[in-house]
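Q: Okay, next protein. This is Chromate transporter from Dyadobacter jiangsuensis. I've checked the sequence twice, so it should be correct. Can you predict the 3D structure?
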Amino acid sequence: METLIPPGTARYSLMNLTKYFLRLGTLGFGGPVALIGYMHRDLVEDRKWISEDEYREGLALAQLAPGPLAAQLGIYLGYVHYGVWGATLTGLSFVLPSFVMVVLLGMAYQLYGGLAWMQSVFYGVGSAVIGIITLSCYKLTIKSVSKLEMQAIRSKWLLWVFFVLMAVITAITQREEVWLFIILGLVYMLVKAPPKWIRKSNTSLSVVLLAGTGFWQFDADKLWQLGLFFTEAGAFVFGSGLAIIPFLQAGVVGEMGWLNEQQFLDSVAVAMITPGPVVITVGFIGFLVSGFAGACVAALGVFLPCFVFTVLPAPYFKKISKNEGIKAFVDGITAAVVGALVGSVFVIATRSIVDVTSACIALASVLALIYIKKLQEPYLILAAAILGYCLKTYL
């Protein structure tokens, strides 16, 4: 496969780029929006390794293709000057630091998760995570569907129908079906950008070893199930890493029964306190289900489709990006996925907000993120952990 620009024209070496993404994966807190902002600041504005056009093309592809947004953008930027090798090394270096962190946290969780002090810590953390995800849902909604203005809602009314429909279905059934996302995506494509043959026929359509951590424990059958489940999740989730939560919650808690609600919420909290892509929570989940092997299989299942859907269309993307049908299909799926995210947050909240205190912590988390500028989620999670411990220990 050819690179987009000959390597000789690059102002940096592949090692330079790999080191940058290793550092970003280690220190880059703040979620997908913050991470793609760091890439623009560092690679486009400061270092000038990537042109503005190249960055915009990568961001557009990351939004069009399924998979975690920040990871896909990083893979594309690695591909720009160094092809498949660049995409592979940047993707690995970006994901590896947070993967190691969640595995270590999974080991600690297996050791101490049943102790009273750990439970008191996650009492506060779980409530804060509900608040964080609720605010993220709002931001994703106004970004992916439309702003909460009457004119915008009228112009995007069908997307709002998909959004509300999936939110209600997810909240009631407490599960999701991928085929619904695909159907809604196709419906929106037929309405907004119908194929020519339809328009002609009907113009009316619009590595540390600790005893008890479960590091080496695994179940071969579960590994296959993990691989299939997380590959499906990676292949059908569009946009922010938080959009994968409905798939995970419905699958690992409801359908498979691998985790209970509290363990799932704790896994989301772990993703919030570690740098790098939020979707790395799958590594933590995989570890709880089937040790280190499960963590590897889960992470590979989610990130492999992301890699493939970024690298394969990269040489032809300028043509693909202009296809109105593909844009409409993705818009329809995105609205449905965000609606499902809202529904899944409702389900999780009803089971995690157990008293007035936990509800107050969740509300305080939302208000803190709104009114305290530049407050990052890890600091909020830490404060909630300390508060939860104090409340459960001393009151």
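A: Here is a summary of the prediction. The chain has a mean pLDDT of 79. Residues 95 and 309 are 17 Å apart (CA to CA).
Q: Noted. On to the next one.
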